[in-house]
Amino acid sequence: MASRAEQMQQVLRNFRSNTPEVEGAAVVSVDGLILASVLPQGTDEDRVSAMAAALLSLGERTSAELQRGTLEQVYVRGSSGYIILMQAGPEAVLETIAGSQAKLGMVLLDMKRAAQEIARLV
To answer: Do 118 and 91 form a contact (C-beta atoms < 8 A)?
Structure first.
């Protein structure tokens, strides 16, 4: 039987292959540690995980301060695409890098499914 890390890696591979607009994805602990990733070659996993943790922390604080409930997602849109963070259970976050032509509805739907699978593994 595959380890949890290998199973998470497989979920990410399936997510990326089923969603063509997705250029990379990672599962990051709320502490900022990479648990699994399928990031583009040359991407610094430690930097990605640290930035995800910072975005998550800021998003949670903002959501709480403005009384918007529990944080579910964080989006960053740049001229070349998107970075989307989505909770994957209480201990992890699914981070997705998508191109500028991505159909966000489809990406979010596939992210939700992947996040649910990851939450069961974490």
So the answer is: no
